[in-house]
Amino acid sequence: MKGVLGAMERQLAGQLAGKNVVVTGAGRGIGRGIAMVLAGRGAAVAVCDLDAKSAQSVAEEINAAGGRAFALESDVTSRSSMDAASANALRSLGHVDVCVANAGVIGAAGFTDRPDYSEQDWDATFDVNVKGLVHTVDAFVPSMKERRSGKVVIIASHGGRAPRGPGAGLGSVMIPYSVSKAAAIQYCHHLALALAPYNINVNCVCPGTLWTPMWEKIAINRVAADPSMKGMSPRQVFDASIKSRTPLGREQTPEDIGKSVAFFASDDANEITGQALNVNGGAVMN
Ligand SMILES: NC(=O)c1ccc[n+]([C@@H]2O[C@H](COP(=O)([O-])OP(=O)(O)OC[C@H]3O[C@@H](n4cnc5c(N)ncnc54)[C@H](O)[C@@H]3O)[C@@H](O)[C@H]2O)c1
C-alpha cells in the first residue's frame, strides 16, 4: 500500500504478512481505520458491514492502494448472517487468523433526542454490542479451534471501564452503551480462559474519544439535552470533551486504534491474552 503509508508504517508493512483477518463494522469509522492499518501491514482483509456499499468502498480503497481486501455484507445481530460471512471468508481466504469484532452502536433510533435512556437503547446496544459480538465469535472461532491457532480482538470502550454518563459530562442515555461495553470486556476474559487451550488469544482494545458518526450522535444529544451547551456545534462539544477530560489533550483516530489492533493481531502479542488496553489519551486509567 505504497503512497498511503508513512515512514513508520513502511517499517511495519510486513508485520501481518500472510495473515487473513476479518473486521466487522468496517465500512466506516474505527472499523475502516482498523481494516486500512491491518491491510497496510500485509494482511488480507474481509471487510464486513451491515452496509454493503460502504464495505465495498473500503475494500476497493484497500485494493487500489495495493492491499488485498474483499467486502462481505453481514449483520452481527443475526447468527445465520455471521455463519454465512464465516463460510464466505473461509472459501475466499482458506482460513482466518484474526477476527476483529468492531461493529457497535451507541443506542436505538431517536438516541440524539433523548436526555435519558429508553428500553430500546438497552435492546439495541445489547443486541449489537453484546449478542452481536457473541455471534461474531461463535461464527469465526470454530475454524480457529480446528487449526489450534487464532486471535480475537474485541473493540470495547473506555466507557466499559469507568462510568462515562452523568458526572463525566455525558447524559444517562450513555449508560446502556457503557454497560454493554463492560459486558464485552468481561466476555473477553471468559473467552480468553475458554480458548487458551486452543492456542487462541483474546484481547480488547478500549478506544477513547474519536470523531466518527457515533460520537457525532453523542454530541448532538448533548446540545439538545444540556442547556450549558446550547448553540454549540457537535464538533465544538467533542473538542470541549477532549479538552476537559483527556490528559494528553488530543482526540484519538481510527488509525490509532488500528495500530493497537495490529499489535494484538501480530505474533508480538503471542503471550498476551485476556487483556483490555485503553487507547484514550489517559482519559480513564484502569
Ligand atoms: N467513536 C468513539 O469515540 C468510540 C469510542 C469507544 C469505542 N468505540 C467503539 O468502536 C466501534 C466502532 O465505532 P465507530 O465510532 O466507528 O462507529 P460508527 O457508528 O461510525 O461505525 C459503526 C459501523 O458498524 C456498522 N454496524 C452497525 N450495526 C451493525 C450490525 N448489526 N452488523 C454489522 N455492522 C454493523 C455500521 O454500519 C458502521 O459501519 C464500536 O464498537 C464502538 O462502540 C467508539
How does this structure look, described?
The mean pLDDT is 95. The protein is α/β, with parallel strands linked by helices and 286 residues long. It has one domain: NAD(P)-binding Rossmann-like Domain (Rossmann fold), CATH 3.40.50.720. The longest helix has 29 residues, at 119-147. Helix 4 runs parallel beside helix 5. The protein has helices at 7-11, 29-40, 52-64, 79-93, 119-147, 175-195, 213-225, 234-245, 254-265; strands spanning 20-23, 44-49, 68-73, 98-101, 150-155, 200-207, 276-279. 46% of the residues lie in helices and 13% in strands. It is globular. It has a seven-stranded parallel beta sheet, sandwiched between helices. Strand 4 (98-101), helix 5 and strand 5 form a beta-alpha-beta unit. The chain contains nine helices and seven strands, in the order αβαβαβαβαβαβαααβ. It binds nicotinamide-adenine-dinucleotide. Nicotinamide-adenine-dinucleotide binds next to helix 2, helix 5 and helix 7.
